[in-house]
Amino acid sequence: MKLKDSSLLKTLAYVNGAWTGAASGASFDVTNPATGEVLASVPDMGAAETRAAIEAANAAWPAWRAKTAKERCNLLRAWYNLIMANQEDLAVLLTAEQGKPLAEARGEIAYGAAFIEWFAEEAKRVYGDTIPGHGPDKRIIVLKEPIGVVAAITPWNFPNAMITRKCAPALAVGCPVVIKPAEDTPLSALALAELAERAGIPKGVINIVTAAHGAGIGGELTANPLVRKLSFTGSTEVGKLLMAQCAKTVKKVSLELGGNAPFIVFDDADLDAAVAGAMASKYRNAGQTCVCANRLLVQDGVYDEFAKRLAKAVAGLKVGPGLTSDATQGPLINQEAIEKVERLLADALSKGASIACGGKRHDLGRTFFEPTIVTNVTKDMAMAREEIFGPVAPLFRFHTEAEAVAMANDTEFGLAAYFYAGNVARVMRVAEKLEYGIVGINEGIISTEVAPFGGVKESGIGREGSKYGVEDFLEIKYLCLGGI
Ligand code: ADP
To answer: Tell me: the pLDDT tens digits for 337-388?
Structure first.
């Protein structure tokens, strides 16, 4: 890994404006999943360091919230500019620790930065209300105030954008943050802190603590009464645990958890468009996003043709290390990820599914996996219920619109859904019936800072991005003025 500005590779955590190690002196290695190379060692922190970070954030809060929205906006804008000026280095760092192809990493840096730009502006429009009073001598005023110290726990699949998507709205409306990045990808987070410092964001406003295992930091972030809000993106299992832990101090929570996205292809769909959408939705980040198509439901009349065209498109994918090749698919994040994909495939094959292409570890070894299509998948197979998080597209067959909608909704998850259809009446009917927070209609890429991202059912609570994204970091205060 070669950076133009080597000072973006930080190997210490960032607490109260200082680069700090673990109290115990312990650290853990961050490796490149494509090569196994150790990129750096970062501090293995726990509850004590987290407490210090929370206290620093709380101490920084009054001055931060007292700034005008425009002052905070200018600081965030400076941060945004520095991120974009260092886009290439940040992308290299991201690919090195996460594995995605460099072009995708560049895209993530721009996508992540866009949240900072968006919320810097949006914070100027945090409007309250005046309400006609309930008596002639009364006036009612509604204020929106920053909630307080925000804890953000983020995953490895978007090491940059999941941080900015949470921190930008929090910071913009006047909240300080304590971030715990995923153990696989802390370097992207620390580089963001370095640029925030250069942008002039005051000490204590952004803090980053790192650990090899999340539980120590997570325990303190969820128990400490100074933390008023937890924003988490990750697995449903850990999300439920953190929500339970937050109950003791009644923290507000935003959760962005697992998905089981259906991708429905109706027989009136533009099949080439559906293939392009499926490629983008399924194979981006090697299938490791929570909005990746997890079940491709294809109507009987177009099933074989769609499978054929999809296989042709998949044959064009190039697997390889993200940094040193023109690969369009990198490695999976770790051994556990590849073992999960193998388990799900073995289960499907044992119950009657067939491999149309791929199906095994790639010749490159390590955690590289062949882009795969599985046909004749049915709902009794584990991959119908579990998030695959790998480059495997399972094709299910359906006959009627009602059957497709029922299959799509037959899951405890409700993050993203996609469907391809031509008939306008069908488009509206199906869009309204899908129990999902996000619906891509004739479109496979739905993430943008200007739209609300989030799920229903067990996929989560809250929305990130858009004008709605600030609400999770605000409290409403109602002033009742009497005796007028
Ligand atoms: P994934 O399966 O995507 O790795 P996880 O939910 O395990 O999802 O991880 C998402 C984030 O949650 C990571 O930053 C991870 O370190 C953190 N995490 C995992 N377990 C805990 C825990 N018990 N308390 C707090 N954070 C945790």
So the answer is: 999 999 999 999 999 999 999 999 999 999 999 999 999 999 999 999 999 9
Q: Are residues 228 and 274 in the same domain?
A: no
Could you give the number of structural domains in the chain? 2
* Ligand 1 binding pocket includes 460 (Cβ within 6 Å): no
Cβ–ligand 1 distance for 218 under 6 Å, the answer yes
Assess whether 401 and 473 both reside in one domain.
no
pLDDT above 90: residue 324: no
Could you tell me how many helices (H) and strands (E) the chain has, helices first? 13, 20
3-class SS at 221?
A: helix
Active-site positions? Answer: 256
Q: Of all atoms in ligand 1, which is nearest to the CA of residue 182?
A: 14
Return the ligand 1 atom nearest residue 213 CA.
Answer: 16
For 273-304, give the DSSP string: HHHHHHHHHHHGGGG-STTSEEEEEEEHHHHH
pLDDT digits (tens, 9 = 90+) for 279-317: 999 999 999 999 999 999 999 999 999 999 999 999 999
Q: Is the CB of 386 under 6 A from ligand 1?
A: no
Does the Cβ of 235 fall within 6 Å of ligand 1?
Answer: yes
- 275 in Cβ contact with 306 (< 8 Å): yes
Which residue, judged by its Cα, is nearest atom 22 of ligand 1? 215
Range(s) of the domain holding residue 16: 6-257+459-478
Residues 308 and 214 grouped into a single domain: no
Instruction: Report yes or no on 483 lying in a domain.
Output: no
Closest CA to 260 of 390, 415, 449: 415
Which residue's CA lies nearest to atom 26 of ligand 1? 214
CA distance 167 to 293: 27
Same domain, yes or no, for 232 and 181?
A: yes
**Closest residue CA from atom 9 of ligand 1:** 234
* Alpha carbon of 251 to ligand 1 centroid (Å): 18
- Mean pLDDT over all residues of the chain? 98
Do 235 and 115 lie in one domain? The reply is: yes
Inside any domain, residue 382:
yes
CATH number at residue 162: 3.40.605.10
Nearest CA to ligand 1 atom 25: 218
* Prediction ipTM score: 0.98
* CB-based contacts of 347, cutoff 8 Å, min separation 6: 381, 382, 383
